[in-house]
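This part of the workshop introduces the protein records we will be handling. An example says more than a description, so a record of this kind follows:
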Amino acid sequence: MEKDMKRKEQFFALEESSNDLVRQEGRKSSNDSELNSRTFRFIVIVFMVLSFHLNGQSREFPGLTPLEGHLTQVYFSNGSDEKAARIANQMDQVIHFYDDKLMFRPEVIILVLSPDDWGRFTNFPVYGMPHYSNNKTLIVASQNNDFWDGFIPPQDSLSADIAELLSRAYSGADGKLTMEPFFDLLAIHELGHAYHIQDKLMMQRKWMGEVFVNLFLHAYIAEQEPQLLPQLTVFPRMVLASTQKSSLKYTTLKDLEERYNEIGQQYPMNYGWYQCRWHTSAANIYDAGGAEVVKDLWDVLKSNREPLDDEKFALLLSREVHQKLADVLLKWDLE
């Protein structure tokens, strides 16, 4: 609302400037017809508004190119037009998919950035990690990078079946392994955060915020782009298969709830293990309950505003959503 009011004020200021020009024009030629004066005034307003609009974009994201015609606002670095278009088109499909389920659309700006542009628009130190720079500006990487490559384990550390799945899901055009297909899908995960944050859902637990967006991601892929399921699911399976739980500093949901920022910032591999657990949980929940589970969970989190203890929260999830979701809380430490 405040943004709209400012734009209106700026428009009316431009309109008044055009009136001054019209009056000046009228003094120069008092014999001009009223029609010509109105035409001149209209043209001045149009060009001033267009100039203001374009200059506003330039000031906000200098050096980036806007991609028009999508449900999200997309800007991209030089040479990143193909990835920007692919992400924008996919985001359009996700938003349309959830329109009749969640009855809400978030406002999201997506910046598809090269390594050179990354530091110009975000303070996040690791190139390649999708994240928000504020509550609506999503930052994603435009190209493969060391962060993604760091998740590729030595082939001899994997079982034969996981190694084969990894090769099929993540082989690039050059035949080398790349985690780019998985990390590109995390833009949908981050879109899910925009939904629950902007509509102010009561998530009850930090881990529920992550389970929700992973379920949001998995349900969309399974329903609309099932050919991408290997790219979504093999990576978490690989991480869990190659990680010894005893090697991690933190493993419980209680640890995560109390030390969320510490784990995310100081123990990224440990946090990655949690995320992979939530990814596999989301897959299991979807397989048991289908896409309807996303809507049911949304409705529960939207309508229940009071904090709940673990017992009441598990009972609510079991009754109103699905037992598989309640089991994330009830059986986490048993797996």
The chain has two domains: 2-60, 145-334. The chain has 15 helices and five strands. Confidence is low (pLDDT under 50) at residues 1-58. The radius of gyration is 25 Å.
